[in-house]
Design a protein that fits this description.
Elements (H helix, E strand, L loop, with lengths): L1 H13 L9 H13 L3 H5 L4 H18 L1 H7 L10 H10 L1 H16 L12 H14 L1 E11 L2 E10 L3 H6 L1 E10 L5 E6 L2 H19 L1
Antiparallel strand pairs: 1-2, 2-3, 3-4
Helix pairs in contact: 1-4, 1-7, 1-8, 4-6, 4-7, 7-8
Length: 214
C-alpha cells in the first residue's frame, strides 16, 4: 500500500493550496478549484496528474531505498521494509504499472464522483478517492514564499490540518513546489522538490494507514 499511497497523499494534501499577469499562485488556486469542483479539464490546464504520479512514484522509490535500513529498524512489522534496498527497488519496478494503474483508477473515480462503497473491498479505487476528498477538505494551505527566475518558479506552501481526525493525520507539512511557464505563458505545476525532507514524515503517515487496514 505504501508505494501507492505516497504519490496520492502528496497530490491531495499539497493541491489544497491556493491579476492580469498569470502567477504561480494563480495556477495553484486553479488547481485547488479544479479539485474542489471535480473538473479534470480545468486541472489539466495547470497540471498533468498522471505524470505527477509516475514521477513521484519513481522519486519516492529512490528516497525509500536510500533510507531503507532506517525504515527497516523503525517498522519491523511491515514486510515491505524487512528485506533490502535492492528488494524495494526491484519490487517497485516490477509492480510499477499495476500501481500506477490503480492511481489512475482513483483519479477516474474521483472526477467521476463515484459514491463511497459500503466496504473498501467493494470498490477500492472509489473508496480511496472518497477518503482523500475528506482529507482534502480537512487541509488548509498558505503560500509562504514565491521565488521566480525567468520561466521557473518555486512556491513554498504550508499545509496544516484542521481539528478533525483527518486534519490531525495531516498535521503540518511544508512543500516546495516547482512550476514552469508553458508555451501560452501560463504557469504549470511540475513537481515537489523537497521529497527527501518530507519522506520520513510521509512514511510515518503511510504506516498509520497500513496498520489500520492490514
Amino acid at each position: 500500500m505504501l508505494k501507492i499511497f505516497l504519490p496520492l497523499m502528496l497530490a491531495v494534501i499539497f493541491l489544497t493550496g491556493c491579476g492580469a499577469e498569470d502567477t504561480p499562485a494563480d495556477a495553484l488556486n486553479e488547481i485547488k478549484l479544479a479539485l474542489a469542483e471535480r473538473d479534470s479539464v480545468k486541472l489539466a490546464d495547470r497540471a498533468d496528474l498522471d505524470a505527477f504520479f509516475a514521477a513521484t512514484y519513481d522519486a519516492t522509490t529512490v528516497e525509500l531505498a536510500k533510507a531503507y535500513d532506517d525504515y527497516k529498524a523503525r517498522y519491523p512489522d511491515d514486510p515491505y521494509f524487512q528485506h533490502s534496498a535492492e528488494f524495494l527497488t526491484t519490487y517497485n519496478a516490477e509492480h510499477r504499472e499495476r500501481h500506477l494503474n490503480f492511481l489512475r483508477g482513483v483519479k477516474a473515480s474521483y472526477f467521476a464522483k463515484m459514491p463511497e462503497p459500503d466496504a473498501p473491498e467493494d470498490n477500492p479505487t472509489a473508496y480511496v478517492a472518497n477518503e482523500f476528498e475528506k482529507i482534502r477538505q480537512a487541509a488548509n494551505a498558505t503560500i509562504k514564499t514565491t521565488r521566480i527566475a525567468d520561466d521557473r518558479a518555486t512556491v513554498i506552501l504550508d499545509v496544516t490540518g484542521d481539528n478533525s481526525l483527518r486534519g490531525r493525520f495531516i498535521g503540518q507539512l511544508t512543500f516546495e513546489l516547482a512550476f514552469s511557464r508553458d508555451d501560452k505563458n501560463q504557469w504549470r505545476f511540475d513537481g515537489i522538490t523537497n521529497l527527501e525532507e518530507l519522506m520520513p514524515t510521509l512514511v510515518d503517515k503511510a504506516e498509520e494507514v497500513w496498520i489500520t487496514f492490514q
